[in-house]
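Usage

Read records sequentially. Each one opens with the input sequence:
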Amino acid sequence: MATQAVGQGTRRPREPPLWPGVTVLSRRWVVERTFSWIDQNRRMRKDYEKLAVTSEAFIYVAMLHLMARWLACV
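and closes with the structure output:
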């Protein structure tokens, strides 16, 4: 019988949620990475905007800038 390294093929039992109705997302890193990309733009570092619509527009501009940089590299 082959020995199995620690962590290979084994799963930890699912932990109960800390608060009722709240579940931890397994891909939280995707959201954190996206916030980091948005935060690279100086205007998005602080919440200076009075309207949420303006903040949303700047998020779109930041992500368009990021996609344009990616397309320039391809």
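Summary fields computed downstream for this record:
- The chain is about 45% helix and 0% strand.
- The two ends are 47 Å apart (CA to CA).
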